[in-house]
Amino acid sequence: MLPWKRVLRPLAALLLSAGVAVVPTASAHATTPHPASRTATAPASATPVTASAPAGIAAGSSGWNDWSCKPSAAHPRPVVLVHGTLGNSVDNWLGLAPYLQVRGYCVYSLDYGQLSGVPLFYGLGPVDKSAEQLSAFVDRVLASTGAAKADIVGHSQGGMMPRYYLKFLGGAAKVNALVGIAPSNHGATLSGLANLLPYFPGAENLIKSSTPALADQLPGSAFLTKLNAGGDTVPGVKYTVLATKYDEVATPWQNQYLSGSNVRNVLLQDLCALDLSEHLAIALVDRIAFHEVANALDPSHATTTNCASVFS
Q: What is the DSSP letter of 274?
């Protein structure tokens, strides 16, 4: 693919998401410290964010990493946001967290998977250990909010890793729905680059030792083999996968889809052919994807998603 096309795609996504700057839902924002002040196991220390909920929201409160937040009757489950590889609990969610918060949700995000001696970047440690961190974080969210279950929304690795928590760490009893945005459910080839590893002796071992999460996300890895053995899903949890055919990381994009009961796989271009979001833009700025997230979190009040959803 020509380099200029790679540039135009995220730019087109930004144009499609122009509603972020002009609609009221963008009024919420987070004031955050330097990422180095956060730890891998603790919630982000973002200053609590609160916003007035739209008319009709039942009694309760909303907020992003506001530990005094109490879910409303309209949205009784807190939402836990799980960033992707090299992401963090704030930057990954500067678009989606306020989008959900202003709609009346209690929203929480965590940092996980930080390697010793690697500052600023998260999501690099072994994925099974990151799932343990997610488990502890969800427990804290449930204890703080008093909710019986949470909903999880994750991007890239953050859309896949919670499945380990659901399947092996007891998460299925504590989670109502998992929404994966461009998740690496069956591995990521980075547009085929990972397929070249066998031609470079020692390269795969180097990745395993230096950045375990990347190795865990290679198609056919021992981690993914264990995760997907016996089926992609567990009973009692609703699954939604949001994919873009322009993804250049979690490729081929069809690998993102899940099989099983209570699964809804969505290709954004089936909802809006003009949506040119790639792997990052789909989670950072794409309000068409955000609209589908909101539908998955509250299916009884879902509305049609199309190109006009950028203004919703």
A: T
